[in-house]
Amino acid sequence: MIWRGATVPQMVSGAVLLGFLALTAFPEALAPWDPLKTQPGQRLRPPSAAHPLGTDYLGRDVLSRVIHGARVSLIPAVAVVLAAGLAGSAMGLIAGYLGGWIDETSMRLADVFLAVPALILAMAIATALGPSARNAALAVILVWWPSYARLARGEAQVLRAVEFIQAARASGASQSRILLRHMLPNQLSSLVVKASLDVGTVLLLLTGLSFLGIGAQPPSPEWGLEVATSRQYMFERPWYTIGASAAIFLAVYSMNLFGDLVRERLDPRLRSI
Amino acid sequence: MLPFLIRRLALLLLVLLGLSALTFGLSHLVPTDPARAALGFDAAPDMVEQYRREMGLDRPLPAQYALYLRHLVQGDLGASIMTRRSVAEDLAKFIPATLELTLVSLVFSVLVGGALGVLAAVRRGSAIDTVATAGPVAQLSVPVFVMGLVLLLVFYRWLGWLPYGGRLDSMVPAPPGITGLYLIDSLLARDGRAFRDAAAHLVLPALALSNLTLAEMTRITRSAVLDVLGADHVRTARSKGLPERAVLWRHVVKNAAIPVVTVMGLRVGFLMGGAVITETIFAWPGIGRYAWEGARNVDLNVVMGVTLVVALVYSLVNLAVDVLYSVLDPRVRLS
Fold it and tell me: Does A108 touch chain B (CB under 8 A)?
């Protein structure tokens, strides 16, 4: 069981993540107000019983926007890691197993994408595609796949020489069977570990792009965008900024702690007997 | 060493060539017509036509790419729509500010994170070790923009200790430009007022930017020092009666520096990426802010120019780290 022997912070992080999952699944049931409903007479109100985190510059309820922001902030982060992880690992696996020019070409291609810091390259791609949440996610997938390609390729090169793979080849197994039935299952745990540690970083990257105005666009309650919008009111009304900022921090922090737990469970070098 | 350098530089050229194809391709993805974007949407059709001819926009894509590449090699990154100057000129103007900010952040992270990491490893299990282990996990979860805004709120708005925005107060004249780094230029000019003001303006952006690298540095130093502390040569050094301080400096820290240098070298990219957000928040006139303004105005020459220049700097830093690695560790032979 994954929880056996987990530390208290790890368990708390699991509970927090479950909370975020609930927000993602049922925002309508949990949010007290409609996140898009503007109330011109209620602009920039301080926290009250009706609006626990106050209201924003259009009189919308900040708490409800933070709750609805979970879906538009967290799902893209998970989706980006899944897409980049699948595409990158498939490429790395094939490159490492087949070797030769396929390996050389795909790794040089990965080098190109790794030559620029992630945020800057994602910004360039998202700008060229046009600012939107979808294009920002696409940009981060393009920036993120090479790290998986490198990891999968390295492991595939090691595995290729191991006896049971050679035995499978000698017994006439097809290449796709060797890749899918013999190589992939042996790499899965390291890929899952990397993915679980990556979600938080990708969330930081995506909210960063939205903060810069190149990701999600108004009136989306996406957290990075929410922090950017609230910024100009921050000195007089700090509560407006707190909700979305704290949500990003809590989500990333719990993902990092939880990712450590996944690593402890799946990484054979860390697994206790 | 020389064959290694030649091979790495050749690889670097290949990567930059690939990157130029990427930036060229991205620039052509945009649905807006570059001629119309440069001349304005109400420009006369014959002017647009002439511009297209002059800039080679009427030629087939491979020919356009060849032209683009020739300009790049000559250091011509195109013109900016926003500033109406050449991007290369703009970059030369904005790079020193970014350089100063990232260098100060790097030095701060290395000194403070290094000291924390060593202390935590030496006093394993103490309160400082707990801080150095739990702190970074939390630190790494704070977005750069939240860090920047919190610092502004506390130190500018509430306490009023530090200034907000720009590199100098508008009342303080800039020191004569020698290096472009205000801290150094003001020292060279013996201008104490400019130095103090430049330093005060640097504190908050540098703190915000160094947050992530500080966390990484603490974490890596701690584990590297712990590794070395358990090594045989350290036990030998202790058993021959060397004072603990000498053991630590001569035998532990020096050896632990090797993995630390490698990882921190790779983190320079973190700093350059983070600089975009930091410079945006603190109105810091560097290339990060320039790239951001370019992105907001869909000024592609600006965005791609910054991408290419940052890639060049980043790749050269990585190469330098590899070389430094062999200098620090006599067992590593570059081939």
Answer: yes
Residue contact B141–A245, C-beta within 8 A: no
Determine the residue among B307, B309, B315, B318 to mutate to test chain A binding: the one whose Cβ has the most chain A Cβ atoms within 10 Å.
Answer: B307
Cross-strand partners of A61: A55
- The CA-to-CA distance between both ends of chain B, in Å, stands at 6
pLDDT tens, position by position, A214-247 = 999 999 999 999 999 999 898 888 888 999 999 9
Residue B294 to residues A47, A127, A134, B288, B290, Cα–Cα distance (Å): 37, 9, 20, 10, 6
Query: Which residues are CB-neighbours of A208 under 8 A, at least 6 positions away?
Result: A119, A224, B143, B144, B145, B277
Residues from chain A contacting residue B19 (CB–CB below 8 Å): 112, 115-116
Which residue type is seen at A127?
T
Q: Which residue has the higher pLDDT, B15 or A50?
A: B15
List, in sequence order, every residue forming a beta bridge with A55; answer none if it has no partner: A61
Task: Return all residues near B317 (Cβ < 8 A) that are at least 6 apart.
Answer: B265, B268
Measured in angstroms, the CA of A215 and the nearest CA of chain B are apart by 11
CB-based contact A121 B27, cutoff 8 Å: no
Per-residue pLDDT at B332: 63
Helices (H) and strands (E) in chain A, counts: 11, 0
Q: Which one-letter amino acid corresponds to residue B26?
A: L
Radius of gyration over every alpha carbon of chain B, rounded to an integer in angstroms: 24
Contact of B23 with chain A, judged by CB distance below 8 Å, is answered with yes
What pLDDT is recorded for position A87? 95
Write out pLDDT tens, residues B223-275. Answer: 889 888 888 888 888 888 888 888 888 888 888 888 788 778 778 888 888 99
ipTM: 0.89
Cα–Cα distance measured from residue B142 to residue B150, given in angstroms and rounded to the nearest whole number? 11
pTM metric for this prediction: 0.91
Q: Mean pLDDT over residues A47-55, rounded? A: 87
* Residue B21 φ/ψ, nearest 5 degrees: -65, -40
A109 chain-B contacts, CB cut-off 8 A = 18
Write the Ramachandran bin of A271: left for phi over 0, alpha for psi from -120 to 50, otherwise beta: beta
B 48-107 near A (Cβ less than 8 A) = none
Question: Torsions phi, psi of A33, nearest 5?
Answer: -130, 170
Query: Could you tell me if B208 and B151 are in contact, meaning their C-beta atoms sit under 8 angstroms apart?
Result: yes
Q: Is B10 helix (H, G, I), strand (E, B) or coil?
A: helix
